[in-house]
Amino acid sequence: MKFPNLATFLILLIGLFMLSSCNQRTRDLSPGPMPAPAAKPIQHPRNIILMIGDGMGLTQISAGLYANNNQLNLEKFPVIGLHKSYASNNLITDSAAGATAFSAGVKTYNGAIGVDKDSMPVPTILEDAIKQGLRAGLVSTSSITHATPASFIAHAKTRRAMEDIASDFLQTPVDIFIGGGMKYFANREDGRDLTKELASKGYVINDYTKKEITDVTLQFRKRFGYFTSDSEPLPVAQGRNYLVPAAKMATVFLQNIDQDNKGFFLMIEGSQIDWGGHAKDSDYIITEMIDFDKAIGAVLDFAREDGETLVIVTADHETGGYAIMPGSRMGRIEGAFTTDYHTAALIPVFAFGPGAELFAGIYENTAIYTKMRTAFGW
Length: 378
Ligand code: MG
Ligand code: ZN
Known about the structure:
The chain is of the alpha/beta class. Helix content is 34%, strand content 18%. The chain has helices at 6-28, 58-67, 95-104, 125-131, 147-153, 162-167, 183-186, 194-200, 243-256, 273-278, 282-306, 367-376; strands spanning 47-53, 79-84, 135-143, 176-180, 203-207, 223-227, 264-270, 309-314, 318-319, 323-324, 335-336, 342-343, 347-352, 361-364.
């Protein structure tokens, strides 16, 4: 027989069609999640508090959990996602590119502070918030000019330009900032005293040499800056204990600064989980992780009572290739490290409050920025 009969021909055609539709379906499944069956309109929060545990991968969280009686405030979050942390020029991100992805929604090169991969300044969520009439704050357990907080308020080609980063605090009227690094403001190469310049712009500036943070009386009519150290703050293990009161102070301040409050954006960083990883020091990681988690608990208490606050907790990257080794027990972690630098593992994202559902799934780190904007309704 020279030609197949009609029936055979049809079966072949149908077979080809099914094959191609299978291919189609396989392609459609990746990348990105399947659409939800019936997406409900999201609720918009008035306030967003973004909490960044620098270097806080899943193992850091696990070690903190098991070292702390199998309990963390992180367990209270109803929505969990994962983000892809890589930078534009390196699969292994640093904290500058990592924070700029969150603050401005761009993949950029390692070392970049609030600039894109061509070193051009990009608007940040904190600047967006202020432009929209919202209040804004930054709290950190590193210097306030360090890569993570800097990426929300400054624009610099390199994270090393600490004094340039400090002078950007004069450009963006952040309502409250608490962190270390006073010397980059008060004891500069160019001889300027930015603490005086900030005061002349209406800031109340205070610092650790004058008053404990817990003894400061807030003046809601004025902007507020508090320096917790001259350079980098101490680790928790050496006596630093301001993160929880600073987190509480910032939320109370931003909530009450004016009567027709339109809402606020606040970034709070647990900076030194990362430094524990660089030091390959498991106890350093654990004490910093538990300190950060206490601040998370304080913020969750505020958010639960407020009802209009979206809380997001994540990390810029993992540090140390940290592992919990055989021989570890509940309450006693034997840690090991594969590097003294960062790794490229997917990073967990925890969300609570109106708009939290946006943060489920797997997405780029830059999506944290766009999801926050969507949550705000921008
Ligand atoms: Mg940091
Ligand atoms: Zn680091």
